[in-house]
Specification:
This protein has about 270 residues and is of the alpha+beta class. It has two domains: about 110 residues, no CATH class; about 90 residues, no CATH class. The protein is about 45% helix and about 20% strand. Strands 1-4-9-8-5-11 form a six-stranded antiparallel barrel. It is globular and about 50 Å long. The two termini are about 40 Å apart. The relative contact order is 0.16.
Length: about 270
């Protein structure tokens, strides 16, 4: 047998990783929200995090910022307030942008500042009223293994229905994750939050946005907040980072249950 050159061996990890890396990433299931989620607005626009799961275990995990499109936009309700105080319902497809945030566990829904200004809007809230499926916006690499119509039909149909039963309907871990996401939204992405924000984020952003959340979910989220608050009082760790890790761990726990159920049914 011909010997393999050391230089070739060194390149093997790259070659092995290069195949799946150019495939379309996973379809995502965005979890039904218990109530409307307010977008947080800055000079750049308005954003919020929505909890999501991976529907295709074997496909690549999306990188942060990878764009997605809603497969069933009718699952969304967008409520906006205009500068004159009137409230209106908007077409989700005409105003919302979706992108992966932290792997497959969160997606960021956003509206650019220019869109808000042109439409005369001062605030927005989004509710995921039914199980939402997001499709990768598309690969530019010609070698990519694209999602087929069959893949999309299966992912948005039977697989999303399985996820709905296991994940969306979970009133413990998933409800807790939604509460954590509301606190994560208002904490700074860089640096430490000030003392008042750290101490008040539960009351102002978790408790006030917990309509429709189970008592068990609220209790688990409050316990997580208390732990993260203590652990991040000093040092380099931030409250946002601690809550985000807990949120993502909760989601992965449920995602594994979903993956196992899909395998068992295949």
């Amino acid at each position: 047998m011909r010997a393999i050159k050391p230089s070739t061996l060194a390149a093997l990890p790259f070659l092995i990783l290069a195949g799946p890396a150019i495939a379309d990433p996973q379809m995502l299931g965005v979890i039904q929200t218990a109530s409307a989620v307010p977008l947080q607005c800055t000079g750049a626009g308005c954003t919020a995090e929505l909890t999501s799961i991976c529907l295709h275990e074997k496909r690549p995990t999306p990188i942060s910022g990878y764009p997605y499109l809603p497969h069933n936009p009718d699952a969304l309700r967008v409520t906006a307030t205009r500068t004159d105080g009137t409230r209106v319902q908007l077409n989700p497809e005409s105003i919302l942008n979706f992108a992966a945030s932290r792997g497959f566990t969160t997606v960021r829904v956003s509206v650019p500042a220019a869109v808000m200004e042109n439409a005369g809007l001062v605030s927005l809230a989004v509710q995921v009223k039914k199980p939402l499926t997001l499709i990768p916006a598309g690969q530019t690499d010609a070698r990519a293994a694209p999602l087929t119509e069959g893949d999309i039909e299966l992912g948005a149909g039977p697989m999303r229905a399985t996820a709905q039963n296991i994940v969306d309907g979970d009133t413990d871990t998933m409800h807790a994750s939604q509460v954590l996401a509301r606190m994560i939204d208002v904490l700074p992405t860089r640096g430490r939050a000030d003392s008042d924000l750290r101490a008040g984020v539960w009351t102002t952003n978790a408790a006030s946005q917990s309509a429709g959340i189970s008592e068990l979910g609220k209790h688990r989220a409050r316990s997580t907040y208390n732990r993260c608050y203590r652990q991040t009082r000093i040092g380099d760790k931030t409250l946002r980072g601690c809550l985000a890790k807990a949120h993502d761990d909760f989601v992965r726990e449920l995602n594994v249950k979903y993956w196992d159920a899909v395998k068992a049914g295949s």
